[in-house]
Design goal:
With 483 residues, the chain is of the alpha/beta class. The chain folds into two domains: 7-251 and 458-481, 3-Layer(aba) Sandwich (Aldehyde Dehydrogenase, Chain A, domain 1), CATH 3.40.605; 255-439, Aldehyde Dehydrogenase, Chain A, domain 2 (3-Layer(aba) Sandwich). 38% of the residues lie in helices and 20% in strands. It contains 15 helices and 22 strands. The protein has helices spanning 42-61, 64-67, 70-80, 82-93, 97-114, 154-167, 181-193, 208-217, 230-242, 265-277, 294-310, 329-345, 380-383, 399-407, 422-431; strands at residues 7-9, 12-14, 21-26, 29-38, 125-126, 134-140, 144-148, 171-175, 201-203, 221-227, 246-250, 255-259, 287-292, 348-351, 370-373, 390-395, 411-412, 416-418, 438-439, 455-456, 459-460, 475-481. The strands form six sheets. A seven-stranded mixed β-sheet has the order 14-15-16-13-12-18-19, sandwiched between helices. Strands 9-8-7-10-11-21 form a six-stranded mixed β-sheet, with helices on both faces. The chain has a three-stranded antiparallel β-sheet with strand order 5-6-22, with no helix packed on it. Strand 8, helix 7 (181-193) and strand 9 (201-203) form a beta-alpha-beta unit. The longest helix is centred in the first third of the chain and has 20 residues, at 42-61. The mean pLDDT is 97.
């Protein structure tokens, strides 16, 4: 019998009010139930909000450097539990153990980047026109924040939202993705063990539509930091803004890679395979559109199709596997829907497009890496986020046409270009409509010391990480003093 896990509210592990549970299953083997979790409702969310509100006065008045001390213990705990965390991520998300270890490592680097932020909550001193007036600014905490984390990077994104919020002096209600509830319980256990006080971080598991709605409309929730689909993020943003709350959202992407005639084609292919196929394309920054010029089009298509066919798909614990399963039935259905749509629109399905069911794969949500050619920029598969290992190759006649097609989407998260022409590279950087961009690198490349976030419907509010990490979680106060 699988273990039952509880919500964490006001320093206690408790059952939800309804007593209802839901399972989290292994997407590589749906017969394996990893645990049962609380199917919380709006009443449970209100309990967590009240606990966070009650903890805010004392926590916000604690000296900022003292607030940050827990982070040093948290980093050590992450280091000590590296393998246990990675194995849980592989078991619950489905990504390969190599990719899961990468997530844990990136999480540790992000936490190290944040270690000094408690001593950098600085304002400014600004000269006044009046010689008798001393003017300055301070950055202050705001109150209760809701953190809504996704399933694709449940440890990393969960912590790089929660930690800045509480370092800044706020308190938190954490709503993890339901299908990654187990790793989220472990995340909470790490925060508790690191010394975060009672009520400062609270967690409720359960359906996003119910809990998210309560968090969006509750007047005591001063802001929401969300990562997920643009559809959900925009709806949450409207609800929060309608009552004067703050919203930060990192949402979908339809990220282009442009390959010019002078590019290192093998480097480009390696980068596109990594960013578009590995982790099953379940990264918001993953490459899903490849725009190629005539001189290199055939070489790019031939090599990309070959690599897609060669990718080994299997259980994430198998060292031979390069891709595990997609996360759940919904994501499998989404993949199959867009494959069908692409064929109907006239794109050429070169490889993939199927669910894999041989042997042990029949019990999981395994899919084949997929390449479409003859894709037109306005096709549905070139416009909508699929979040699966599907790459559309789009033929263009010129650099200018490539740029126009690259920008002809609602999204604006990440992008990349492959070229040895420095002038073209910087033209691309200036002209591409994305919040993160790259030259001769995978579109998924990121480092936590730099700000992260998108444009257009890919992002709302201040950027995450880097020097922007705490901006969303503070308000600026201007002070005038006449002695």
């Amino acid at each position: 019998m699988s273990e039952t896990y509880r919500n964490y509210v006001n320093g206690e592990w408790i059952n939800c009010r309804s007593g209802q549970l839901f399972p989290s299953v292994n997407p590589a083997n749906t017969n394996e139930v990893l645990g049962y979790f609380q199917k919380s409702n709006a009443d449970d969310a209100r309990d967590a909000i009240q606990a966070a509100k009650a903890a805010f006065p004392a926590w916000s008045q604690t000296a900022a450097p003292k607030r940050g001390e827990f982070l040093f213990r948290l980093i050590q705990l992450l280091e000590n539990k590296r393998e246990e965390l990675a194995e849980t991520i592989t078991r619950e998300v489905g990504k390969t153990l190599r990719e899961a270890r990468g997530e844990v490592n990136k999480t540790i680097l992000s936490m190290k980047q944040l270690t000094g932020e408690a001593t950098r909550l600085t304002g400014q001193t600004v000269p006044s026109w009046d010689e008798q007036v001393f003017g300055y600014t301070v950055r202050e905490p705001i109150g209760v924040f809701a953190i809504i984390a996704p399933w694709n990077f449940p440890l990393g994104i969960g912590l790089w939202k929660i930690v800045p919020a509480i370092i800044a002096g706020n308190t938190v209600v954490f709503k993890p993705a339901s299908n990654t509830s187990l790793i989220s319980v472990m995340l909470m256990q790490l925060l508790i063990e690191s010394g975060v006080p009672t009520g400062v971080v609270n967690m409720v598991t359960g359906p996003g539509a119910v809990i998210g709605d309560e968090l969006a409309h509750h007047p005591d929730v001063k802001g929401i930091s969300f990562t997920g689909s643009s559809e959900v993020g925009l709806a949450l943003g409207q609800a929060v803004a309608s009552r004067g709350g703050k919203m930060q959202a990192e949402m979908g992407g339809k990220n282009p890679a442009i390959i010019l005639e002078d590019a290192d084609i093998d480097l480009a292919i390696d980068s596109i395979v990594l960013s578009g196929f590995l982790d099953n394309g379940q990264r918001c920054t993953g490459t899903s559109r490849v725009l190629v010029l005539p001189a290199v089009a055939e070489e790019v298509k031939t090599k990309l199709i070959k690599r897609a066919r060669e990718l080994r798909v299997g259980n994430g614990f198998d060292p031979e596997s390069e891709n595990g399963p997609v996360i759940d039935q919904n994501q499998l259905d989404t993949y199959l829907y867009y494959v069908k749509k692409g064929v109907e629109e006239g794109a050429v399905l070169e490889c993939g497009g199927t669910r894999l069911t041989d042997g042990a794969l029949q019990h999981g949500y395994f899919v084949a890496p997929t390449v479409f050619t003859n894709v037109k920029p306005d096709m549905v598969i070139a416009q909508e986020e699929i979040f699966a290992p599907v790459i559309s190759v789009i033929d263009v006649e010129s650099y200018e046409q490539a740029m126009e097609a690259a920008n002809r989407v609602e999204f604006g998260l990440s992008s990349t270009i492959f070229t040895n022409d420095l002038n073209k590279a910087f033209q691309f950087v200036r002209g591409i409509q994305s919040g993160v961009t790259h030259v001769n690198l995978p579109s998924t490349h990121f480092e936590s010391q730099y700000p992260f976030g998108g444009k257009k419907i890919s992002g709302i509010g201040p950027k995450e990480q880097g020097e922007s990490a705490l901006d969303f979680y503070v308000e600026l106060k201007t002070v005038y003093v006449r002695p």
